[in-house]
Amino acid sequence: MKLLSWNVNGLRAICDKNALDWINEEKIDFIGFQEIKAHEDKFPKKIYEYPFKYIYSNSAKRPGYSGVMSLCNFECEVKKCEFFDDDEGRVLEHRFNNIVLFNIYFPNGQKDEERLNFKMKFYKDFLIYLEKLLNEKKEIIICGDVNTAHKEIDLTHPKANSNTSGFLPIERAWIDDLLNMGFIDTFREINGDVKERYSWWSYRMKARERNVGWRIDYFFISAGLKNKLKNAFIRDDVFGSDHAPVGIEIDI
């Protein structure tokens, strides 16, 4: 299976740019979008023309904000957030066979301390939920915009951002905790310590043109899927958002 994840920074905007047309040329089994910023009655008609059998969405109550959408070609049981009071449309959970696949737009903590606390509670509650699923012998795939770079190698200016939400020690420690539970950062598993590979660039100061970025979009898999992982990649050749799509190929 080929699975992708992309923070599109506005579903209507990206469809208006025809920036999704590349998916017509590729055999994709699943693509999870984050930050769709639209309710179902405002979805562009074009989204239903792409080669997917099923479309699922979880929109924020607040118009023009957050929201996730999944397009897939396999049957699954779909839930919205089971572990958090999700008025912001941040989670879609897909269950098929013995696998739980999450499409998540994790909170951003940069606005103020209140939002950072909100982000950290979301992180904590998600770990508790993952532990429950692991105890149920589920295999798990997590994709989405995690809004945190893990290591210094994952952003251009680590020292300058050491006190910035998205690279705070408490946020980075959460990824440590996730990996200590047995989860695998698929990009690093396949690509090792390759440098200057990012998935997000600011719109300011020609950051993407200069490749001044952060790797904050991930696929994590549970330990039982490690031997099934065949590839992990960042599609930084795809434009239309301030994020690039990320993906994996996995035998499931």
Structure in words:
This protein is α+β, with helices and mostly antiparallel strands and about 250 residues long. It has one domain: Endonuclease/exonuclease/phosphatase (Deoxyribonuclease I, Chain A), CATH 3.60.10.10. The chain is about 20% helix and about 25% strand. It is built from 5 helices and 14 strands. The strands form 3 sheets. The chain has a 6-stranded mixed beta sheet with strand order 3-4-2-1-14-13. The radius of gyration is 17 Å and the shape is globular.
* Quantity of strands, as a count: 14
**Apparent shape:** globular
Q: What is the CATH T-level topology?
A: Deoxyribonuclease I, Chain A
The string of secondary-structure elements, in order, is EHEEEEEEHEHEHEHEEEE
**Helix percentage range:** 10-25%
Low-confidence stretches: none
Helical run tally = 5
Characterize the largest beta sheet: strand count, sense, and whether it forms a barrel. Answer: 6 strands, mixed
Q: How much of the polypeptide forms β-strand, as a percent range?
A: 25-35%
> What's the CATH H-level homologous superfamily?
Endonuclease/exonuclease/phosphatase
Site (Transition state stabilizer): 147
EC number: 3.1.11.2
Site (Interaction with DNA substrate): 243
Protein name: Exodeoxyribonuclease III
Question: How are the SSEs ordered, and which strands pair?
Answer:
Blueprint: E1 2-7, H1 11-16, E2 30-34, E3 54-58, E4 68-72, E5 77-79, E6 91-96, E7 99-105, H2 113-135, E8 139-145, H3 169-180, E9 184-185, H4 186-191, E10 200-201, H5 207-210, E11 213-214, E12 217-221, E13 229-234, E14 246-250
Parallel strand pairs: 1-2, 7-8
Antiparallel strand pairs: 1-14, 2-4, 3-4, 5-6, 6-7, 8-12, 9-12, 10-11, 13-14
Active site: 105, 145 (proton donor/acceptor), 243 (proton acceptor)
Domain Endonuclease/exonuclease/phosphatase: 4-243
Site (Interaction with DNA substrate): 243
